[in-house]
Amino acid sequence: MASSLFFTHSHCYSSSTSLVFRLHRQLGVAPTSLRLSSSHVANVAAMAMDSSAKVIDGKAVAKQIRDEITAEVSRMREATGVIPGLAVILVGDRKDSATYVRNKKKACESVGINSLEANLPEDSTEEEVLNYISGYNDDPSVHGILVQLPLPSHMNEQNILNAVRIEKDVDGFHPLNIGRLAMRGRDPLFVPCTPKGCIELLHRYNISIKGKRAVVIGRSNIVGMPAALLLQREDATVSIVHSRTSNPEEIIRQADIIISAVGKANMVRGSWIKPGAVIIDVGINPVDDPNSPRGYKLVGDVFYEEAIQVASAVTPVPGGVGPMTIAMLLQNTLISAKRVHNFE
Amino acid sequence: MASSLFFTHSHCYSSSTSLVFRLHRQLGVAPTSLRLSSSHVANVAAMAMDSSAKVIDGKAVAKQIRDEITAEVSRMREATGVIPGLAVILVGDRKDSATYVRNKKKACESVGINSLEANLPEDSTEEEVLNYISGYNDDPSVHGILVQLPLPSHMNEQNILNAVRIEKDVDGFHPLNIGRLAMRGRDPLFVPCTPKGCIELLHRYNISIKGKRAVVIGRSNIVGMPAALLLQREDATVSIVHSRTSNPEEIIRQADIIISAVGKANMVRGSWIKPGAVIIDVGINPVDDPNSPRGYKLVGDVFYEEAIQVASAVTPVPGGVGPMTIAMLLQNTLISAKRVHNFE
Hints:
Two copies of one chain form a homodimer.
Chain A: H1 2-5, H2 19-27, H3 38-48, H4 58-80, E1 85-91, H5 95-111, E2 114-120, H6 126-138, E3 144-147, H7 157-163, H8 175-182, H9 193-204, E4 213-217, H10 224-233, E5 237-241, H11 248-252, E6 257-260, E7 278-281, E8 285-288, E9 296-299, H12 304-310, E10 313-314, H13 322-340
Parallel strand pairs in A: 1-2, 1-3, 4-5, 4-6, 6-7, 7-10
Antiparallel strand pairs in A: 8-9
Helix pairs in contact in A: 2-13, 4-13, 9-10, 9-13
């Protein structure tokens, strides 16, 4: 029974090392074979409300955002001579981490953002990593600092992440940022990339949030919790469903907007969805697929084929939230550079 | 119609100057004419689950907590020679503010905590206030600093509150504290007093939170939002209802635990309450009462006489959450002193 299996992997997002999150980041820079104009995105938005086409095209939106960032980076460079810079610190030689760092580098290059990279050996000391962070903290050409996770197990992740200057914390995970996100009348310097990408998709598709019932599935620091805070800032009535929730289906069924970030393949069934709901599916879960040359395929937390019959709009997996995460990282880096140089 | 009036005063808690909050703080130190032993509290707890006695006695619990604090303060003083100290800064000559400060002073004295007080004239500069904060920040005999709100309008409240060292922020309103409260795997240095008092009442009455549906009414920085974060930390499934919620009654009716902090007299009717729910009523609202010598009486957000027929336990107003707030302030001051002196 689906409900008895519920949330077996609910804590995937608690750790930045989870496969789900790593895949997510990786997919964030999947090559956009589809080149859509902004008018096309608008058409997709209009179509999303139509029963015949409910797909929220994250690839197209991410492409549009990268184009906007490219234009802004160029405008800023021309006006001020400043080029936004993102520094990524990679410790060790995990192949997957190296891939994500390479993808971030490529994404930066594609929009004209400088990318700096520090590759430290696996047996580096915490102090050596802190020295690099300190150097980037003081380097005026660096506007964002990202420490690629996971770090080797002999390092204290919290110490290292806390060392990043809040003005350069483009991941938005610093507790001071999260606190400001939670508080009315305060504004965070940066909003975490994946939840920001979820809300941006709603905005770009003109899906109204104010006064809507929203249910966030999963309460990770990286996605679920900040997504709930963002929805609340936009005046949704928010409920968070998690591994200890006794009647998740019942609550999810009340939602006008569902954001699922739990990392459990095809967990949310069609019968859990209120007709006309909008679904943002953050999960990217590998399932066996003998027909694929890789032997697996990727699916979301939401049973897509069922959801598309009931919802008014759904993000596909891949190609939904995935491509938005890196677009938001680039945007945060640009925001940081603009802020420090008072460039509007 | 009740629902059409809903949340007229919903933002009272957004400002620390609200009458509701001020009254609340004032009542936090109402003289406890009732002196109950801890066994009495346990009896009340048992009775609360009985249909004949559903009252959550905040006065008795607060008294018990103050007794515990008195014992701890004494134990600490004997073992280390250190006396916990709370500094309160009062700017201007508002009568109500002067009363709350006096009450806090009295409460400190009653448990053996040192209280320091700075009274600055209304026309002080922001810099003068900041100088006092800086002095208390550096004073090792001060373990908690509280700036009495509201400040005169020519001062920037956020600047002043941000100047309090986070290690002495016994109000728990610093965004870094709120961020840590929101994040899994992080712990705030201090939990804001009123929401902490709400949860403490549930604990002392052995009301289980884990897996329960909880609805928080109101999303203020001072009560609603941190109360929701606290409930979530204890594994409740939390929804926040606010002024933009289109169907509050429907959502509230699903709650096993209701925390109301909205400042609207008798708003939550009996028909909004699920039979057997537990209600923590933070609202303290004055309503006309010709029979009272003061011309008014105080009531909660919840229509008490109706609620008591449906709920399994309800906090009265006054005498529910009110007395808990200052008890929690004293507790936070003790926690701070213990932490800085590594006293367990």
